[in-house]
């Protein structure tokens, strides 16, 4: 095996990549890319995937890519996102939510409920519903129908009513998980404006949303007390519309964002933008697998949220007003999605990722917290490992001004927790990233200091993870672990797999222990702590086993004993994980802001991040006959599979731009440069492929 020197490789990548990321960031989600593979990708999306129970915690709300506004149904009972697919009783419609994240959900602000008769307490019972990207529609047994659509930070409600008395009930203190803090509002004729303060996910911080809503003329808005209002329609009105927009800066900005055309125009614009964005990745294969792919790709671009206005004004996480020529974002779940979703965004939408990476760097300027501040510009979750994401972005060619935030980076790493076995490994990863950043800044002595701090992981590993004979190694949360077992966390040394192999006893023992891990079903795809382990055979003499695992976890039946409620079930989950239905995923498996959806997208395309912090991806056999990444103004990157069959899972040969590739990885530069990679598929393991030249992360002594 050839063990590549990661540092030298990364530096070479960076200088080459600098040429590829100098284009300005546009305000739109994507620009249309014209080629022969253009398709109506949005029509393939099933927005009801993962919307039942604790099977993803997703929402069918009308949304727009990376928008803080998502107008969706609020059901009784509800789940983390306020909606349960099987529920029939609706409470109304709310205007934000954070998808697939933990605790008990967040968002659910500004509840609007249509009603008939004199009492707003009359029930809404679902009779039928439909939805597509940017659009949601439902009809009720009382003959009210509702349609919702969103474009950027603006959206519209459109209602049809039967004859008789009717109106809207508006609850400004409604929220998920008791998150309401305070609000102020103003009624002026047929408009309602104000702000709402609410708790972030897990109630760790607080955010403020400004809004401006415009109702049809003839709707009389009245105070009802206790943060509630009533909007009565004239008896002869059979239809009504509500325009609403959000801002993290001010009411005036929200008002300026209101969509001025009609509902159908807004719906069409939203659909067009969704199509442009989803068409960045074009897949060709089995129709049902295509539908699953686009349904999951759709989930991967719900957050982070655009918080800046068109003139560049935005609020920092310290509450101060700022200005940027690039789009600014907030709404993070970094500990969950730094492994998959953020790397996917860095490839598929580089014009977006420029602002995303800069926004992450901003957190250190404004006083970063692991979870949230008390002045967040939007709902958010957590930001651990942001330092790793910034190193990763820099090595992919994105501009990160480390010199301006290095003191904050050092302060964060100096304050990391090494008190528990899992925390020790997690914190060592961040210490390694800081060492690499200090090396980039030519601070040699400090870089060496934090490299040695990172390498202390070996002491923690030998103490808690080496001995596999102890009785608690397969017990959830043993020794204070967070949502995992000793078996699952022991592999978490992504920055020094070479060192980990040495700790286990060498290649043979490393491979044997991986075999034991998977043969005994110790792996847990319901959560992230061991999400990278299926790829770790790529650092062994048997990379074909990673190819088999990636295919199985993405498209075949698996056995899973662990659940995200910190339990190891007596009866296992035995099924396909990624299903295009409301009860998707493993029970209790959250999508975690696109983390799990993005994992599938990578697996389906045939490459996945080897170690976030290095611009390298391990190869597996794609799930489609062809995949193409297309970017405005750039040469597309095309992936083809010869001898394709839905059941084939092994790589026989790889040709990159006409030359045979003898290594089991591809670089970020090679992807972004465009060209063609051809996989030759095999139904049986090709055991001599991918072992001559392997990428294995290591820390130089």
UniProtKB/TrEMBL annotation:
Q: Where is the Glycosyl hydrolase family domain?
A: 260-411, 423-680
- List keywords of the entry alphabetically: Calcium
Q: Name one GO cellular component term.
A: cytosol
Q: Which cofactor does it need?
A: Ca(2+)
The superkingdom of the source organism is Bacteria
Give any single GO term for biological process.
glycoprotein catabolic process
Residue ranges constituting the Glycosyl hydrolase family 92 N-terminal domain according to the UniProt record: 44-220
Which Pfam family, any one of them, does this sequence belong to? Glyco_hydro_92N
Q: Which GO terms describe its molecular function?
A: carbohydrate binding; peptide-N4-(N-acetyl-beta-glucosaminyl)asparagine amidase activity
Task: Give the signal sequence positions.
Answer: none
Q: How does it assemble?
A: Monomer.
In Swiss-Prot or TrEMBL terms, this protein is called Alpha-mannosidase
